[in-house]
Design brief:
The complex is a heterodimer of chains A (about 350) and B (about 230). Chain A is about 40% helix and about 10% strand. Chain A is α/β, with parallel strands linked by helices. Chain A has one domain: Metal-dependent hydrolases (TIM Barrel). Chain B is mainly alpha-helical and about 230 residues long. Chain B folds into 2 domains: about 110 residues, GMP Synthetase, Chain A, domain 3; about 100 residues, no CATH class. In chain B, the strands form 2 sheets. Chain B has a 3-stranded mixed sheet with strand order 3-4-5. Classes of the chains: A alpha/beta (about 350), B mainly alpha (about 230).
Chain lengths: ~350, ~230
């Protein structure tokens, strides 16, 4: 919990990892890919405040003690959600597998939620693995990295028939939340790998699943927002938005937040530190202190209130994952009036006969 | 990199300045994606390109390398182009494919189905939409009404670099771009009715914010990667 100016914030870090990108875990012959991946992450890491930077060796493989300290001792996090990401094409034992992440979930009851994953290209064997994982780890959510390399394929779309088969089975198995993470490659490679129109299709066809689009679709935030405004079961995962922009580009952070508040609304935005890319402490504290700038360029963006910050930092994710929230951290009213100006504008335009 | 000194090197640099990152819609020279550019006495132009990360999308990387190759090859006095992308997972494939004039599908056998014209067009359309915010925003701030904006022609707008840029993008996607063309157009070229103006302008600004936020993040990552 984080307390500031008499307000209590229940913090759910809805996107974090316990990874191993150390050279011992690099697949022989693919060392350049394994190193290139963690170097790319390390670039993002350095967009945070300098005093929070780690050296590269620690960044490749941080310890359990580091993680517990950074999240729970100083990072204000109440519950953290592991978003398992395999990348076995270049990390021998995986980057952060469900199994590895879950060792901490088991060791520290109540602190973590383990999300699993599936890959529709693994066919029947993948489906059986998903069933076993749900049984073993009690999964309520999965993280899908659509740019994962698998054999000769460089990625997949959620709208692929095989992906639908997995989504349907996941839903049958009791999974509620699908965290979608887009990356730079896809099949076929001539398409825009970051395009989120496949999430649009899946969200329409699986209305009882929630689709949390991580890093709010960046670098396609425009497509994401215009899709999310029309799909009530699509959420904006703020990983990378706060970490990558709040310190490095405060003016653009405000613009991106303004667009998200307008199109998606504070009821469908969830905080995620993306640890170990960044530590949660400075993100939580900075976000609570953050205000939409007063100058004219931001005049017609919605404001973010203390209540809105409480929702984004924890209450929204708590709702998605049925996490109990202490009474002193709840909001006084449970009225679920969605305040999404963009939705109103789209509805009005539709009523006026335009699209 | 430091400015070129000879006239031919300057011409090559200027040619590289016509090559844009398709997503960010800015010249690769402004983005500092040109790591080095030299021209030998016998007219061999050597260009090295770099990107913000090892895993930047390979299709956009291909377009930049191929466009840079074509732009430099067209400079009078350049006898041969030696161009290479560095520090990228697909660098070897892209460099060999561009040098062989093979095309994207041939360079990535089994991984791609089409050349990249449609991909490029998707992002030109975004740029043409974002450009409408750049041109219209000052008019909105000055009090222009939706009715006035819906009726406005490009020729009614005061000259500016943003207007020139918008007209160029319109031309590139095959939309009307002359003085009689409407200021506001849907991506498919349909005119924007007065009651559609508020939503249209919101979408245009959203698109611009997205593109510009990407541009900032790419600059920041490149700066960290190469300590510039």
């Amino acid at each position: 919990m984080y307390e500031k100016d008499g307000e209590k914030y229940f913090i759910v870090d809805s996107h974090m990892h316990y990874w191993d990108a150390s050279p011992q875990n690099w697949v022989p012959g693919r060392e350049n890919l394994a190193k290139g991946w963690i170097d790319c992450f390390y670039g993002y890491h350095q967009l945070g405040p300098p005093e929070t930077h780690w050296d590269w060796e620690k960044y490749c493989k941080y310890s359990e003690e580091d993680l517990m300290h950074d999240l729970f001792e100083v990072g204000h996090v109440d519950v953290a959600i592991f978003q398992s990401t395999y990348l076995k094409y270049w990390y021998t034992n995986g980057f952060n597998t469900t199994e590895r992440n879950h060792t901490l979930t088991e060791k520290y009851p109540g602190k973590f939620i383990t999300n699993g994953r599936f890959d529709p290209r693994e066919g029947d064997a993948g489906l059986r693995q998903l069933e076993a994982d749900v049984e073993r780890y009690g999964l309520k959510g999965v993280k899908l990295y659509t740019a994962e390399w698998y054999e000769d394929s460089r990625g997949y779309k959620l709208s692929d028939p095989e992906a639908y088969r997995f989504l349907a089975r996941a839903q049958e198995l009791g999974i509620k939340n699908v965290h979608v993470h887009k990356g730079p490659t896809i099949w076929p490679l001539d398409k825009d790998a970051f395009d989120v129109s496949d999430v649009d299709h899946a969200a329409t066809d699986f209305p009882d699943l929630n689709f949390i689009v991580e890093h709010v679709g960046l670098p396609r935030i425009e497509d994401f927002c215009f899709m999310a405004v029309q799909e009530p079961n699509v959420y904006a995962g703020l990983s990378v938005v706060i970490g990558g922009l709040m310190h490095a580009r405060p003016k653009f952070f405000a613009k991106v937040m303004g667009e998200l508040l307008f199109w998606v609304g504070e009821d469908r935005m969830t905080f995620g530190s993306d640890y170990g890319i960044w530590e949660p402490k400075w993100q939580v504290e900075g976000f609570v202190d953050w205000q939409m700038p007063d100058d004219d360029a931001f005049a017609d963006y919605p404001r973010l209130t203390t209540a809105g910050k409480k929702k984004i930092l924890g209450l929204n994710a708590a709702k998605l994952y049925d996490i109990p929230v202490p009474p002193e951290c709840r909001l006084p009213t449970s009225a679920d009036e969605q305040d999404t100006p963009g939705e109103q504008l789209v509805t009005e335009a539709a009523a006026a006969g335009s699209s | 990199m430091t400015a070129p000194t000879t006239a031919l090197a300057e011409a090559v640099w200027a040619a590289l300045g016509t090559v844009r990152d398709p997503e960010i819609d800015e010249p690769i020279t402004d983005l500092e994606f040109v790591a080095s550019c030299t021209v030998s006495d016998d007219g061999v132009a050597s260009v090295r390109l770099r990107l913000p990360t090892f895993f930047c999308a390979p299709n956009f990387a291909w377009l930049m390398v191929a466009d840079a190759h074509d732009a430099v090859a067209a400079v009078p006095g350049v006898e041969r182009v030696d161009i290479a992308l560095e520090d990228h997972f697909a660098a070897a494939t892209i460099n060999e494919g561009v040098a062989a004039r093979a095309g994207f599908v041939a360079a990535f056998p089994g991984e791609a189905q089409s050349e990249l014209d449609e991909l490029r067009m998707v992002f030109l359309r975004k740029a043409a939409l974002a450009g409408q915010d750049r041109v219209a925003r000052p008019l909105v701030d000055a009090g222009a009404t939706p009715e006035e904006l819906a009726a406005m022609r490009l020729g009614d707008v005061p000259p500016s670099p943003d207007l020139d840029r918008l007209r160029k993008r319109r031309e590139e996607v095959g939309l009307p771009h002359g003085p009689d063309a409407p200021l506001l157009l849907h991506p498919d070229g349909a005119p924007v009715a007065a009651e559609q103006v508020p939503l249209h302008l919101r979408r245009a600004r959203l698109t611009r914010v997205g593109i510009e936020a990407n541009g900032h993040t790419c600059r920041d990552l490149l700066g960290k990667r190469y300590a510039i």
